[in-house]
Design a protein that fits this description.
Elements (H helix, E strand, L loop, with lengths): L19 H9 L13 E8 L4 E5 L7 E2 L5 E6 L5 E6 L4 E6 L6 E2 L6 E6 L5 E6 L6 E6 L6 E2 L6 E7 L6 E6 L6 E5 L7 E2 L6 E8 L5 E8 L5 E6 L6 E2 L7 E6 L5 E6 L2 E6 L2 E9 L1 E8 L1
Antiparallel strand pairs: 1-2, 1-24, 2-3, 4-5, 5-6, 6-7, 8-9, 9-10, 10-11, 12-13, 13-14, 14-15, 16-17, 17-18, 18-19, 20-21, 21-22, 22-23
This protein binds calcium ion (CA) (2 copies).
Length: about 290
């Protein structure tokens, strides 16, 4: 699959994408991360296959790769106890969960427009994006799919939610009137919304809260550039760029011990130190990593 240059306004191709082709395009440019990472020991990395479709898991050193599902499944997100994985059947547009070994698959939504699941740190709820036609919103539900509750309600595109490790806040990306997406945070009940970034000519997407709660990793850049990985303080200060190259770098996911970040680049899953440095390849033909806590 050929990686295309990222388009800052990716929302219609991601949260709103219902056609297989559209989601393939989104995946090719590096689709959103998933999963609230709770502090813990580093376990395995789940990811989606790009041409060999399905969800896989692999050790961080690249060993013991295992297929967990077949078909066009995207966006794996580990439960905080590391025993289950939520994911999206991208053909249906619905969220499922399964055991870490791929057994016991259960469908959680039945509306054809649910994406980007991420577990709350106590494992009881899942935050996700719902909405096709151009105005996606953020919702939460119980981890059995019941008890859906709205978080955002507006005319902007709200997407890429990730739960803070203390469970009190949800970070997400928002684009209003086709502007480059910025990062926001909000209480799980939708109150006390705060802006984190407000850049005019840059975009910020796929936020991932660090396990110590202090920083947020995200992908972004100038609209004219290829995409890079950054981290930023939760107050929007102390922005740090941790990749610098001419490839699309996307979908950061913290290791549970906070020392590393897995990410997508060059049709592969990589990991590097959370302050950058040399990246090591974890899996070829993969995207959208999420790191298991043990
Ligand atoms: Ca909205
Ligand atoms: Ca880059």
């Amino acid at each position: 699959m050929v990686t295309v240059k990222p388009v800052p306004m990716r929302t219609p191709r991601r949260a709103g994408a219902l056609s297989v082709c559209a989601i393939v395009a989104a995946v090719a440019i590096g689709a959103p991360e998933a999963g609230a990472v709770v502090p813990g020991k580093n376990g395995r990395i789940a990811y989606m296959g790009l041409t060999d479709l399905g969800i896989f898991s692999v050790d961080p050193d690249g060993d013991r790769r295992r297929r967990l599902s077949n078909g066009f499944d995207v966006g794996p997100s580990w439960s905080p106890n590391g025993k289950r994985i939520a994911f999206v059947d991208a053909v249906q547009g619905d969220i499922w969960k399964m055991r870490a070994n791929g057994d016991d698959k259960r469908r959680l939504t039945r509306n054809g427009s649910s994406f980007e699941p991420s577990w709350s740190p106590n494992g009881k709820r899942i935050v996700f994006v719902k909405g096709g036609g151009g105005d996606p919103e953020i919702f939460t539900m119980r981890s059995d799919g019941s008890g859906r509750s709205r978080v955002t309600d507006n005319g902007a595109d709200d997407f890429d939610p990730d739960w803070s490790p203390n469970g009190r806040r949800i970070v997400f990306a928002r684009s209003r009137h086709s502007s480059p997406p910025d990062l926001f945070k909000v209480d799980p009940d939708g109150s006390d919304e705060e802006r984190i970034t407000g850049t005019q000519n840059r975009y910020e997407v796929t936020p991932a809260w660090s396990p110590d709660g202090r920083r947020i990793a995200f992908a972004g850049g100038r609209e004219s550039d290829d995409e890079e990985i950054f981290t930023i303080g939760t107050d929007g200060r102390r922005r740090r760029q941790i990749t610098a190259n001419d490839q699309v770098d996307a979908d950061p996911a913290w290791s549970p011990n906070g020392n590393q970040i897995a990410f997508f680049s060059r049709e592969s899953v990589w990991r590097m130190g959370s302050d950058g440095g040399r990246a090591r390849r974890v899996a070829r033909d993969g995207a959208w990593p999420d790191w298991q806590a043990r």
